[in-house]
Design goal:
One of its GO terms (biological process) is proteolysis. Keywords: Hydrolase, Membrane, Protease, Transmembrane, Transmembrane helix. It holds the Pfam family Rce1-like. InterPro entries: Rce1/LyrA-like_dom (IPR003675). The chain is built from 7 helices and no strands. It is mostly helical and about 160 residues long. It has one domain (about 1-160). Helix 4 runs antiparallel to helix 5 (about 95-110). The termini are far apart. Residues about 5-10 and about 85-90 have low confidence and may be disordered.
């Protein structure tokens, strides 16, 4: 099965190092969201009853399309070519070409609603979401992380509104 072939890191996902990275991302999200919102790159907060369900649906839809669709398709297409592009000399952190290409496309897709610096800032987050998908083998992890960041950004934007 192709899923088993391309998402072979599930044991690494249970490692202490990966769990610490995941915890770090979870804890850092509100601070990063506050910083992003303070630079004026927040989310619209005019109607909370409309905005919050859209954040949930948006995070899930983006992860299904980009991680579950594009990243899997690229991994199938490029399996064996540029299989690993090391980001650091840490054995538990490696960047696949599928994740890198998906991350760049994901960041570029944010240009339609955000200025270039904000869209570019999406790239590292996208790479972490892609890594969490590859290592867990499940879409729920990147969906939850994406949702947590979106809700954190919405809350920071809401608290900073005039």
């Amino acid at each position: 099965m192709i899923r088993d072939r391309i998402l072979h890191h599930s044991r690494a996902f249970r490692s202490a190092a990966w769990q610490q990275l995941l915890l770090g991302c979870t804890v850092a999200s509100p601070g990063i969201a506050w910083l992003v919102a303070s630079y004026g790159f927040g989310l619209p907060t005019s109607d909370p009853l409309r905005d919050l369900p859209l954040l949930v649906l948006g995070a899930a839809a983006e992860e299904i399309v980009f991680r579950g669709g594009l990243q899997v398709a690229l991994a199938q297409r490029y399996w064996g070519q540029w299989r690993w592009m090391p980001v650091a000399r840490l054995p538990w952190l490696s960047l696949t070409s599928a994740n890198l290409i998906t991350g760049v496309i994901f960041a570029l897709m944010h240009l339609w609603r955000h200025p270039a610096p904000a869209a570019l800032a999406v790239l590292p987050v996208s790479l972490l979401l892609g890594l969490s998908f590859e290592w867990s083998g499940r879409l729920r992890i990147p969906i939850m992380l994406h949702l947590w960041f979106n809700v954190s950004l919405w809350a920071a934007s809401f608290l900073m509104r005039p």
